[in-house]
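Task: complex structure prediction.
Instruction: return structure tokens for all chains below.
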Amino acid sequence: MALLGGAACFFAPQAEAGSCCGGGAAVTLILPKDASAMIDTSLDVERYDGFWTKDGKYLRDQPGTDMSQYRLNLGYAVRLARRWQASVSVPYVWNVNIYPNTSSRVDGPGDTMFSLWYEAFDATMCRLRYVEISDLKPAATFGLSLTVPTGVSPYDGVKSDDITGRGFYRLDGNVLLDKTIYPLSASLFLSYGRYFERPVNREVDYVQPYRKRLGDRAVGTLALSYETFIDYSKFRNRLTYTAALSEVWEGEGTINGDRDTTSGLRKTSVAGTIAWSTLERRWIVRLTWSHSIMRDGWGDNTVASDIYSLGVTHVFN
Amino acid sequence: MYSIKIALCFLLILIAGCGNVKNDLSPSGDDKRPSVEAGTTGPSVGQNAPDFTVSDSLGNSITLSSVIALHKGVVLYFTMWCPTCDSQMSYILDNIIPAYPDVVFYAVDYVSATFADARNAEVSNGFAGSGFIVLADTAGTILNTYNATMGTTVVIDKNNIIQMNENFKNGSRLQNVLGSLP
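Output:
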């Protein structure tokens, strides 16, 4: 579980621009085995750079277009029992969009995520070295996450640049498998979520009511890490380098029960993180760069972006 | 438990401070469209369509009232050349425009600064020579007049009455409206 503080920000990659029906999703926090609580804050800077069409062709934005979203994420995780923990993460979102003939700046709360996790192990599963096959057994953590639409959505009487959330409740089932044999770690995070259908009676203005549901959503992230130690005078610290590959997929939604074939998305991202932590991992500072592969075929029907994230985590015993 | 209570209180305060959010936390399916007085001009369904004159992406001047006089209907689709716009415009192009040859379809580009920019966007996004005529709404005139945003789709009939003004969805609503044009 050594890297989870640093890797947590991988687990909720953004898939839609704030000006384009999305943005503002919270991150998932998971508490280390020996901790009682954790506070996490991070600042994400997401710069959008082109998009993929429905058939996977990558197109650049118009010259003179500069779209960014800034997110301040506040998170708290607490241990409920020996194997149970819960967390909440609340983002605050700023959208800054500049077009050739106009610009906009808005801010507001994003969508909030509540999570409940069950650890299917009793003791830390990290190993100092490989001795026998049982040393390869990973730690498994299972979770449920509920996204609550606390952001400003397209159904709140606002225009597209003002959106800071998606407007739907979503329930995700999550699995995290991770293994550390010092100094290497590997983790696999899988998530599958379903949006709940809702009535809509308002877009920019009130409209003829209808029912809408976004498509099911799946996320898979594979991360590999290497940990090293550094010494500052008499204090010993850890540095962890992580590389991750992430795939986000969202199926087609429905309008009044009928498929919306213009919806759905897919995106592949790569990410790198450098995390500094104290020896006992009570403080973790991490810097992450997540990058969409801006070529044909690496996404469908969504935006491409670079996300720069600086996070600080404090873990309580 | 004390820390959990603090976190929950913080969240409730945050949520309570956001008026718009109530629409999403407890969404309503009630029809709250205001009644519209016939004969007035405005962006709502049932009102007379506000007239406008803008340049298309080739520099030609387009006046709504002149176009309506020659067609059974006019469709305005508001685009900012984004993935959602691309997907919905492609759908309209493939599935709707061929079925309504007596209706004119405009893609209203409200983010380009000049008609030449709008032309570049039209070409680079693959819509040059398509069934859409791109309007360069460089001053945001049509966008503001019709209270539109990305994906807004407006249908105006030959009597200059607005029959639809809402986000494009899966195409069925637009086809229903076009199919019942007088």
